[in-house]
Amino acid sequence: MTAPRILIADDHPLFRAAVLHALREALGQVDVVEAASASALGPALAAHPEIELVLLDLTMPGARGLSSLVYLRGERPDIPVVVISSNDHPRTIRRAQQFGAAGFIPKSSTAEVIGKAVSDVLEGGTWFPPMTAERSESDAQLAARLAQLTPQQFRVLLCLADGLLNKQIAHELGLAENTVKVHVTAILKKLDCHSRTQAAVLVKALEPEGEV
């Protein structure tokens, strides 16, 4: 039986090591790829297309709340994403679920719980702790709007939210400036926004109401 390949995306080396230990306790053999920032997710996925699951911290450098989750679901919708966060507020858990997470593991969880959650998701299921927060219709609508964007368009949108000009976005993403202009036009049309500022407000809505 081939060892599952799992991407652990968290900026704390000690926590990544702790998660790896928990995974080996639960699954035995496991092949782990690590990423320490939001910008490292794309290269990690490209270098290891056989990744079967992503364990994602929401507060890595370069992330805006749920932006890394939205990016991963757009880039590789075939790979389940399990959020692993120190904020296990019911609203945070529900939002992660609505934006496409297959599971949510509080960072305070035992190694046994982490292993059980990952095993359940690898087998095609989901794993969420009990929660009482109601489903948000505004989150559902935002998730549907953002799902229209290609992964590249979503990257451009994040740059828009940072207030970058087209020339700066082109430099940041390694694109021609004209290509950026085309993406911006498509983004505004898909999101039904009349300005870059309106689009930026949508990205702000991905940010947590509290710490994540």
From TrEMBL:
The modification 4-aspartylphosphate is found at D57. Residues 142-207 form the HTH luxR-type domain. Gene3D superfamilies: 3.40.50.2300. Transmembrane segments: none annotated. SMART domains: HTH_LUXR, REC. Keywords: DNA-binding, Phosphoprotein. Residues 5-122 form the Response regulatory domain. The keyword Phosphoprotein applies. GO terms for molecular function: DNA binding. GO terms for biological process: phosphorelay signal transduction system; regulation of DNA-templated transcription. This is Response regulator transcription factor. It comes from Pseudoxanthomonas composti.
